[in-house]
């Protein structure tokens, strides 16, 4: 920073062997773009005491909590081959729920994690080629209190979220029933005390079951919103093009500038906003 203006970056180059800083790199620039993601962008700005005048920095974190339903079929499906996110159902988006067929490699996501005994029972791995899974993600907004107050209370300054609205069990029960009707022999609904069901009659147990939020196997995806864009400098951190309102020369172009939940997977929106902001910046710099 020079005279209140961002004039570049100073970075430590880390030695990959030792993990220690090897030397310092300084880049002087007419414009500086920060794109460290919705967690690290506000963290970095907060540490440097920048971009805080609206009081919105680090607030408004949105994540997409998700849970999955997996089903075991008789035949091999090898669901990890081909297009990973092959189908989605947005019929329930008005209720904030998106269903998407996802089958990540084992160890990542719910398809493997939903199998009972996963990680302990290696035999289960043999079933993996016969498993299909679908996830339900919903939008959840972060705590809106001041990050500094949260830190003072001993809480993480940014990551204070908890699903106010857990992913819909009613839909999971419908998915379980549908899978069984389509020939699945077993459905794994990722619910405590109900690791698997194998008859359409059991579907009612998902529908009527009561679980505490803390018992649900929910993982959270797609953090966004922590340096949100807006049309005035009081309610937002950056302008509609990603320029930081109170730091000339500094721009943010990543998931943190999204003003609210995208409700769907955000990557294309993030890339579109970054490309749009970059094109405008390039024009402005001549
Ligand atoms: C496993 C996985 C699967 C996903 N699948 C999908 C999907 O199918 N569809 C979809 O839409 N989204 C998906 N997402 C989400 C998507 O990847 C993110 O929403 C998106 O990448 C966010 O973009 P970003 O530019 O804000 O941040 P990132 O892509 O996270 O980029 C931030 C970069 O900043 C770097 N960085 C952070 N701090 C520092 C620092 N101090 N110094 C230097 N560098 C730093 C990081 O290393 C990183 O390279 C997935 C995410 C994961 C983890």
Offer a quick outline of the entry.
By secondary structure, the chain is of the alpha+beta class.
**Rg calculated over all Cα atoms:** 23 Å
Q: Bound small molecules, which ones?
A: flavin-adenine dinucleotide
Proportion of residues in helical segments: 10-25%
Largest sheet: 7 strands, antiparallel
Low-confidence stretches: none
Count the beta strands. 11
How would you spell out the order of helices and strands? EEEHEEEHEEHHEHEEH
Mean pLDDT: 83
Indicate the multimeric state: single chain
- Protein structure class: alpha+beta
Question: Approximately what portion of the residues adopt beta-strand conformation?
Answer: 15-25%
What is the end-to-end distance?
A: 22 Å
Shape: elongated
Explained architecture:
By secondary structure, this protein is of the alpha+beta class. The protein has 2 domains: 8-60 and 225-285, FAD/NAD(P)-binding domain (3-Layer(bba) Sandwich); 62-221, no CATH class. Helix content is 21%, strand content 20%. It is built from 6 helices and 11 strands. It has helices spanning 37-47, 110-113, 147-152, 169-181, 203-208, 267-285; strands spanning 8-14, 21-28, 32-34, 62-72, 88-89, 97-101, 131-138, 140-141, 186-188, 219-224, 250-252. The strands form 3 sheets. Strands 4, 5, 6, 7, 8, 9 and 10 form a 7-stranded antiparallel beta sheet that branches. It has a two-stranded antiparallel ribbon with strand order 1-2. Strand 5 (88-89) and strand 6 form a beta hairpin. The longest helix has 19 residues, at 267-285. The two termini are 22 Å apart. The relative contact order is 0.20. The model has no long low-confidence stretch (mean pLDDT 83). Bound molecules: flavin-adenine dinucleotide. Flavin-adenine dinucleotide is lined by residues 35-38, 40, 44, 85, 222, 254-255, 265-267, 270. Flavin-adenine dinucleotide binds next to helix 1 and helix 6.
């Amino acid at each position: 920073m020079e005279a209140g203006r961002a004039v570049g970056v100073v970075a430590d180059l880390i030695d990959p062997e030792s993990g220690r800083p090897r030397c310092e790199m300084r880049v002087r620039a007419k414009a500086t773009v920060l794109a460290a993601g919705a967690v690290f962008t506000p963290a970095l700005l907060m540490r440097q005491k920048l971009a805080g005048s609206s009081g919105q920095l680090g607030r408004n974190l949105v994540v997409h909590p998700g849970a999955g339903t997996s089903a075991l079929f008789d035949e091999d499906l090898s669901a990890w081959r081909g297009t990973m996110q092959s189908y989605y159902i947005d019929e329930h988006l008005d209720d904030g729920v998106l269903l998407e067929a996802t089958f990540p490699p084992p160890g990542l996501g719910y398809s493997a994690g939903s199998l009972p005994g996963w990680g302990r029972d290696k035999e289960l791995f043999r079933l993996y080629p016969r498993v299909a899974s679908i996830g339900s993600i919903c939008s959840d907004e972060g705590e809106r209190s001041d990050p500094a107050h949260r830190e003072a209370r001993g809480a993480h300054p940014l990551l204070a979220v908890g699903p106010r609205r857990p992913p819909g069990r009613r839909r999971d029960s419908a998915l379980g029933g549908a899978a069984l009707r389509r020939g699945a022999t077993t459905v794994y609904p990722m619910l405590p005390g109900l690791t698997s069901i194998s008859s359409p009659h059991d579907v009612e147990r998902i529908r009527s079951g009561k679980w505490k939020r803390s018992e649900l196997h929910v993982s959270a995806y797609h953090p966004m919103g922590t340096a949100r864009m807006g049309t005035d400098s009081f309610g937002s951190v950056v302008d509609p093009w990603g320029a930081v309102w109170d730091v000339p020369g500094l721009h943010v172009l990543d998931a943190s500038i999204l003003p609210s939940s995208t409700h769907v997977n955000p990557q294309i929106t993030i890339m579109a906003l970054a490309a749009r902001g970059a094109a405008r910046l390039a024009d402005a710099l001549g």
